[in-house]
Known about the structure:
By secondary structure, the protein is of the alpha/beta class. It has helices spanning 13-16, 25-46, 96-101, 119-136, 154-161, 167-170, 202-205, 209-214, 238-250, 271-274, 279-288, and strands at 49-54, 62-66, 75-79, 105-109, 147-152, 182-186, 227-233, 255-261. It has one domain (13-288): 3-Layer(aba) Sandwich (Rossmann fold), CATH 3.40.50.1820.
Amino acid sequence: MNQRRQVEEPHGEALYNARAATPDYLRIFDRWARDSAAYRAQCKRRGNGRFDVPYGPRAAETLDLFLPSEAAKATLMYVHGGYWSSLDKSDASWIAPAFVDAGYAVAVINYALYPEVSVGAIADQVRAAAAWLYRQCPGWQVSGGRLYACGHSAGGHLATLLLATDWTKFDSSLATSRPVAAAISVSGLYDLVPLLDVPSVAAVHGMEQGAAMQASPARLSPHSGSRLLTALGNDENQGFKQQAAIIAERWAHVHAGQVDCPRRNHFTILDELAQRDGSIFNAALALLSSPHS
Length: 293
């Protein structure tokens, strides 16, 4: 008698634990840190970098700013990943050079980490950074205060959340209700509810379901006129692929497309953002220069 073999669908850790799925992730992190330190040293010599600039009162509320040689076309705010509980802006400076060379100011921000603060508090810090940058843009000759956000993994979640923020409630003194024109989310997270069942994602695992829903961009409405570009590696955990499908469906009216990256995992995908011939970099440039964003 033949029996059907039951194929178990991946769940929990298998869906979302990217480090467990990438044995050499520490080597990748070391490269990020080395390349970032080298670029900061170069900018210090050239005088086109400003470091540990405060955007808020907390010690963690600082950013590094990298400026082009002439007036910036726009400002790109970069938000690092790390499941809201690890990594630092000093690991992410290496994202900036290609964009700076293309004429954009790049602000790589820090934020406090879980368990010192909650995901909701981190989201507010990132909003505060965006509001600060929007006000400061004229200082480096950015026309019209053009501000964009970009993030990886948890940073992609935070960057996307900016497009669904009620800015009139968050900061009524802003001269606009939409300071962030568009966002680029690389391997982002958009619905936090599935992460409630993933113990390694401690920042979300300890949340109430209601709080997870309120912090999920896919369960919120983006601003009319916003644009969201997403990117995904073909070798990602299945959970990130599910997340990308969710946001593409629920934000279809603002979704600017998805960049699929063959032979890239959750971490090596960032090479496609940082390299001048990278698929994400070139899609991002097209978005940043679009009259619709």
